[in-house]
């Protein structure tokens, strides 16, 4: 699935960094600069997407990065668990590729607007 998402996003002009499993994702959060959006599968080897999003939300610099969870698990309890852990959005597989890309773009736009609003508020412009 990660290669499909990589293809979709790269085709749309995004720069993509892949983590093969939850452990690699946790390492990236600890060691790398934040990115504009994180896409996580709920079910990943070594650390679940839920564990990764919880860690991300507690890591300075990463705590406000939008997280889109992608999963074959579509029960209400699964969606609620992901959102309560800190996910910004949740998509069930199979998903529509154009909708997926639109959701990624929407999360980035919201995140940028929030960051600009915070900067304006700090400067006394809000």
Describe this protein's structure.
α2 (22-31) runs parallel beside α3. The protein is built from five helices and three strands; from the N terminus they run ααβαβαβα. It has a single domain (2-122), classed as Rossmann fold. Residues 120-126 have low confidence and may be disordered. The chain is globular, with a radius of gyration of 15 Å. β1, α3 and β2 form a beta-alpha-beta unit. The termini are far apart. By secondary structure, the chain is mainly alpha-helical. It has a three-stranded parallel beta sheet with strand order 1-2-3, with helices on both faces.
Q: Strands, helices and their partners?
A:
Layout: H1 2-11, H2 22-31, E1 38-41, H3 49-57, E2 67-71, H4 76-85, E3 89-92, H5 97-122
Parallel strand pairs: 1-2, 2-3
Helix pairs in contact: 2-3
Tags for this entry?
126 residues; mainly alpha; Rossmann fold; 3-stranded parallel beta sheet; 5 helices; 52% helix; disordered C terminus
């Amino acid at each position: 699935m990660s290669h499909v998402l990589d293809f979709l996003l790269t085709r749309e002009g995004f720069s993509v960094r892949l983590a093969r499993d939850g452990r690699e994702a946790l390492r990236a959060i600890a060691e790398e600069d934040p990115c504009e959006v994180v896409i996580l599968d709920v079910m990943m080897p070594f650390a679940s997407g839920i564990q990764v999003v919880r860690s991300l939300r507690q890591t300075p610099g990463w705590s406000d990065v939008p997280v889109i969870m992608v999963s074959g698990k579509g029960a209400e309890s699964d969606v609620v668990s992901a959102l309560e852990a800190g996910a910004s959005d949740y998509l069930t597989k199979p998903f529509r590729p154009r909708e997926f890309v639109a959701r990624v773009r929407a999360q980035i736009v919201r995140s940028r607007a929030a960051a600009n609003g915070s900067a304006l508020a700090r400067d006394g412009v809000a």
